[in-house]
Write a structure and sequence with these properties.
The protein is α+β, with helices and mostly antiparallel strands and 466 residues long. 45% of the residues lie in helices and 22% in strands. Helix 2 (89-132) runs parallel beside helix 5 (254-315), helix 3 packs antiparallel against helix 5 (254-315) and helix 7 (358-374) packs parallel to helix 9.
């Protein structure tokens, strides 16, 4: 009954050995077991009794097997009977009863350990699913899967591999408390046996990554036992979860392999669901931005344009000379406002993520970046079909000039207003247009202190033929 006390697997085995020696009066006792949880062949001994020391050459006179779940778990060995005589049949019977009870206790402990282990993996998979459905980016989602799986498997690293354009697989995410250098970017070459097995949806279990000829990555020498689990969803392979342990660590048990495989299946489904959720959210953002752009165009721009027409009509009436300057400024302000609203509409039509498309979007990105230096966003205007008429080679030079001009403006004191204008309807720098082509002109004005007498601010101009 004392053997059944909850001491954990190792403590239970030690108590079995102690009681076997006490019941029989043996000078030496040992339990030899081939237990994967102990890293292979293990011996649990009781020290020599009654002054008879234990040595490597001890001849054990009584051997009784210990069975767990119908399989031989180990062997209980005793020697050094008091008085030097043989062990009796009663001794053997006592040890067999003890071995049987010990086997039952160890079996129950194994079942309890398996249940606890299964519970941990289930809870871990649920936590990963919840986390993936709230992550903002795909990279964060992959890192979450790798990190949680590493902790559950007690692995040295958790890595995610994804298919490459060349038909291989490359490590894109790694979670490890050890040296991470060189792990991300390591690849499995196309056509390798491991890759063929993964592409077929089968997991790969490796006893020693450093010596297994199937392992070809440049970091294989760092690791020992490993699991490579396909992440499959909707009948396609979206990646691989690898869980290597350090060299010399115990191999994975059948239960650990099964639980990790089930975890990978659920994680793959969660990754697909998370990606679909992000896609729906992006679509909702696009639709909302389109609605705002339509409202700005249909309501704001048209009303501003109508107001401008009314002011221009008023300016032409008899007796309007006294307020003509005021009307002129009002019309100019309305035109400028219409241009800025149209620029905002275009910005709303750009994808929220990824690089902007066209020269207009690239200019807006530069001016938005400059707002951090200036403390306010520059006013940006466009004239002409800048996206379709300005080739990339000219656009690249224009953007370089724009960056320099914005940097210079940010360095001048007293800047409270910056105006950027890109005009794709101007003529080439020399005023001649022999081929009938238009040019493009960039103008950047700021009202900063220049030290000049007129104090009129600074205007930077850059021109190029198209």
């Amino acid at each position: 009954m004392d053997v059944g006390t909850d001491l954990g697997p190792r403590g239970t085995l030690e108590r079995v050995v102690d009681h076997a020696a006490e019941l029989t009066g043996a000078a030496c006792a040992a339990l030899v077991t081939s237990d994967p949880g102990e890293g292979g062949l293990a011996r649990i001994r009781t020290a020599g009794r009654d002054g008879v020391p234990e040595s490597a050459g001890t001849a054990y006179r009584l051997r009784v097997p210990v069975h767990v779940g119908g399989e031989e778990f180990g062997e209980l060995r005793l020697s050094g009977r008091p008085g030097g005589g043989p062990f009796t049949a009663e001794d053997e019977q006592l040890v067999r009863v003890l071995a049987t009870h010990a086997g039952n206790v160890i079996g129950a402990a194994r079942l309890d350990g398996t249940a606890r282990q299964r519970e941990r993996w289930i809870e871990g998979a649920a936590a990963v699913t919840t986390a993936l459905l709230t992550e903002e980016s795909a990279d964060d989602a992959l890192t979450t899967v790798a990190e949680r799986a590493r902790l559950l498997a007690d692995a040295s690293a958790g890595v995610i591999l994804q298919p490459t354009a060349g038909g291989g697989m490359e490590i894109v995410t790694a979670s490890t408390p050890d040296d991470p250098d060189g792990i991300v970017g390591a690849a499995i070459a196309p056509g390798s046996p491991v890759l063929e097995q993964l592409l077929g949806g089968e997991p790969v279990f490796v006893t020693d990554s450093a010596t297994d000829p199937r392992m070809t990555t440049r970091v294989r020498h760092r690791f020992g036992p490993s699991m490579m689990l396909p992440l499959r969803a909707d009948g396609r392979l979206i990646g691989t979860l690898a869980l290597p342990r350090r060299r010399g660590d115990r191999p994975y048990t059948d239960v650990e392999r099964l639980l990790a495989t089930q975890f990978a299946s659920q994680a793959a489904l969660a990754l697909v669901l998370a990606d679909a959720r992000r896609g729906r959210e992006r679509l909702a953002v696009y639709e909302d931005r389109d609605r705002i752009a339509r409202d700005l165009h249909d309501l704001v721009v048209q009303r501003l344009f109508a107001t401008g027409m009314m002011l221009e009509s008023t300016r032409r009436r008899p007796g309007a000379e006294d307020v003509r300057d005021v009307l002129d400024r009002a019309v100019d302000e309305l035109r400028s406002t219409v241009q800025e609203v149209r620029t905002t509409i275009f910005a709303l039509q750009q994808p929220p993520a990824g690089p902007p498309t066209g020269l207009r979007g690239r200019v807006l990105r530069e001016t938005a970046s400059a707002a951090a230096l200036l403390g306010f966003p520059p006013s940006t205007h466009f004239a002409g079909a800048v996206d379709t008429r300005v080739p990339d080679r000219v656009a690249d030079r224009l953007l370089t000039a724009l960056r320099h001009a914005l940097t210079d403006a940010a360095g001048r004191p007293g800047v409270s207003r910056v105006e950027v204008t890109v005009d794709a309807t101007t003529t080439p720098p020399d005023g001649r247009d022999p081929d009938g082509r238009d040019g493009v002109r960039l103008t950047v004005f700021d009202d900063g202190v220049t030290g000049q007498a007129d104090g009129g601010g600074t205007t930077f101009t850059w021109r190029s033929a198209l």
